[in-house]
Design a protein that fits this description.
alpha+beta, BirA Bifunctional Protein, domain 2
Amino acid sequence: MVSSAPLNIDAIRSTLATKALGQTLYLYQDLPSTNREACSLAQQGAAHGTLVVAEHQSGGYGRHGRAWFSPPGFNIYCSILVRGKSQILPLAQWLSWIPLVTALAVTEAAHQVAAVSLALKWPNDLLLQDRKVGGILCESTLTTPDKPIVIIGIGLNVNITPQAFPEDLRPTAASLIEAAPQPIDRNRLLAQLLWELEQYLDELQSHGPTQLRQAYLARCATLGRQVKILFANDQQILGTAETLSADGALQVRPRVTSPRAQPPALIEVHAADVIHLRE
């Protein structure tokens, strides 16, 4: 196992350059879930930018409540409380872009701190050589329509080695250390991640998603791929992922069922599981 220095509040703050994100910081050795803890703090009135970090999660979860492998001491498990919304975007569009810009922030932080290049699988999975190195789970509540609260949960495999994953995860899971020249300073990586995310959230707030969409398109490994889209109601479609709409939805061209058929119209996918198919 790769040596990994422990997370430390002073070490995080030593390189933290944000105005709000992480300025209120809670670090735990063990939590059931950083998202649940952040939700609890939000209900108690915690400030915008409050950060909850844990060395270990006993009940970490991702989309649809799926368990997230969260061993102690090697990765990043954190949740960030975001209050307010863009004044220039409809609430639904602002909410739909939060996980996408968070994914962008993680990729930029990994590049800056660890010299690791990641790709994005729509909407918010982080890929290293087509294997999942991290994921994002955003959960939102509305105190009022004008004062939404979003909890951004991030799980990122950093210094865990491939052999340390459970056997069933090894074909699909990855860690930044596989592509990094040396063990990664998680404290610095977390501080950089928060700075990048604050910049992207400010951009979304002030100018909308136009430039952010271009940045996401440039890093999205889903575009141009043959994909299977699995909806929550068990329906599915097969097709080609072509682009993103203005609100961040994935636009998919379904497969032609007959050689003589007209090209089918694009379908906008707002929420679904996406599987990259082998060409």
